[in-house]
Amino acid sequence: MKKLNKCYLILIILILYSFIQFFEWFKYSTLISNFINKKNVITKNEIKKNYLINVLKKKNKISIEKYEKRFGEIIEYLPNKNEELGYITDYSDQKDVGLEYMLTQYSLSPYIIKLSSDKKYLIGNFSKEIIEDNIIENNRYIFCEEKERKRNFDEIINYTKTNNKIKNTWPKNKIMIYSPFLKRSGNKLKQYKCVKNKNFKIVKKFDNGVMLIQRD
Amino acid sequence: MFFLLNLILFIFLTFSLAYILNKIVFIYIPSFQQNSVLNTFILIPLSLYFSSVLYFFNLILFENSIVSLIFLEISLILIFYLMFSYKFKNKKVIYEKIANNKNDKFNKILNFFFYFLFVLIIFIFLIKSFRSPHGEIDAALVWNRAARFMFRDSGEYWLNNFLLESNFHAGHPFYLGATIARIWTYLNIETKIAPISFHLIHYISTILLLFYSLKFFLKKNINVVISCIFLCSSVLFLQLSVNQYADIPISYFILFSFIFLAMSQINKTIELELFFLAGFFIGIAGWVKNEGLIYALSLLLSLTFFDYLKNKKISKKNLFFIAGSFIAAVPALIKKIFYLAPNHYFSVNLKEKIYLITDFDRLVTIIKSMINVFLVNGNYLIIFLVAIAYIIGINKKANFEIFKIFLLYFLFSISFFIIIFLQMPYDDIYGIIKATYGRWQMQLLPACLFSVFLILKEVKN
């Protein structure tokens, strides 16, 4: 009897452990919440199928698949792979600029995309408004040219504070075009000098906000 | 048609190498106890290690020509076959056949639970991989990106990888990148199925390896099944695999290394060979991820410590361990020496590094953070593992050597990680430790389960 109890105690612990682990997963799983949310909407067979595919597909904040499609067309217009390309974007508080840059590099591998506006060719990763309103063509933006300097020690170990300080100096109601910085970008710190009426030559423009730009 | 032929060639070469390696690696298991199909499947990651190294050298020497790659792979299979042909004939070890358990009710329930969990996690793996076929962001940006650099350009442009910003961790070794690029090269198509299959194979192989090896050592089914249920129930272990991170492959090689060490305790006739293999497998960890070199060093220090306690000198078997780990780590060292990439650690100079290491407040923060994530951060695993060990009970007659080696190895690796965290030029140390700890725990989990279950009493029915 005692031995039997021991065996079942082990079994209970194992089931409990598995239950807790999977319960935690179910609790945070977007798949499960998607199913629960969509359950009442499903009606016709065709709609049912589409819903199922949508429910199963993960909706990331920034989708890698979307980025692959976004940058797929520009590859054939890019110059030689030896040429380092710069990267610029329009500033917006909501944007996860660092991640967007990294996904651009992922999509365009093995081209080298540098976080710099000081290159002959620049990849422009803009929001749709920039394209729709022809902001670049009509020169209705402020371009912030970066200059790198070596960080001092205090700035290295307090990068969050340092980066926030840089971000806070940006005007909120203007269209700012710039090459962003990453949270951890080694021993370099970017400083920006913003100018109006900076001209760029657009080599290729796509409706989705992607551009290949040549600097004067 | 061409695609199908290439696929068959790829599968044939991978499995042939794994089959040959099975005859070399599982030297400690007598032939009548071996299951060739299972062994070959378990050894696919080792076969992938060799082919990823060949892919890397083919990239350097022959600009990724598929003809030279096939030639190199076939040559390696033939060399292994000729070198170790004597192993196909003779077996040095003879053991008693594994005792069969009676099929009682408790045993049946446990087995059913294990099989149910196993099927469930594979199902979840497939569903989750369908939802995010690129893996999590880190996997895409670090491992799959490196594979793209190698595959997308057969010329010299793969070297662009080393010119990227430090956030892409271009300095990481190439086990994942080169293996995935190799599959793409054979198929001549960049398919997302390649990284998914790669991680699924590692995930299943690690569970099977734990099952297979414990079954060999313990000769009793119940404890073996309990340990595997633990591993299968660890959702983070599954999640890391779905995320396509390098942690599961690294856990596989660490586990294998501990299996050889455990085997060397009971089979003195092939002790030196087993120590060589233990070193070789932990050395492979250095080709998987940068911290693999830390794991190799920690295990070496741990073995040397116990050896020194007994003999007051470094013994021959430890020299075999060093030789094994060095040979396996050669590709990683070549890459580190000849292909330098930007690194966060290089962004601080020596004076600043000394300041960071000697900063007492930082040390206190790191230790506090580690204790916090170890005890507080939803860490049910430790509590449940201790509870199970308490209920089953410790077998006082068991050989505690491997368990002691694991504990010291754990302490050494934790000390190295503290030193690394100390010189990290980041301010949010707690955040970094919290993000890294779970992954680090999962890397050690299979080896931990193996060492713990070796010293537990038999659960009798």
Summarize the structure.
Chain A has 216 residues and is α/β, with parallel strands linked by helices. Chain A is 41% helix and 20% strand.
- The string of secondary-structure elements of chain A, in order, is HHHHEHEHEHHEEEE
**Nearest-angstrom radius of gyration of chain B?**
22 Å
Output the number of helix runs of chain B. Answer: 19
Residue share in helices of chain B?
over 70%
Strand content of chain B: under 5%
What's the SSE pattern of chain B?
Answer: HHHHHHHHHHHHHHHHHHH
Radius of gyration of chain A: 24 Å
Distance between the termini of chain B: 56 Å
Explained architecture:
The complex is a heterodimer of chains A (216) and B (461). Chain A has helices at residues 2-28, 30-38, 45-56, 64-72, 97-108, 128-132, 153-157, 159-168; strands at 86-90, 121-125, 142-150, 176-178, 188-196, 200-205, 210-215. Chain A is α/β, with parallel strands linked by helices. In chain A, strand 6 (200-205) and strand 7 (210-215) form a beta hairpin. Chain B has 461 residues and is mainly alpha-helical. Chain B has one domain. Chain B is 73% helix and 0% strand. The longest helix of chain B is centred in the first third of the chain and has 27 residues, at 105-131. Mean pLDDT of chain B is 87; it is low at 93-100. Chains A and B meet through helix 1, helix 5, helix 7 and helix 8 of A and helix 5, helix 6, helix 9, helix 15 and helix 17 of B.
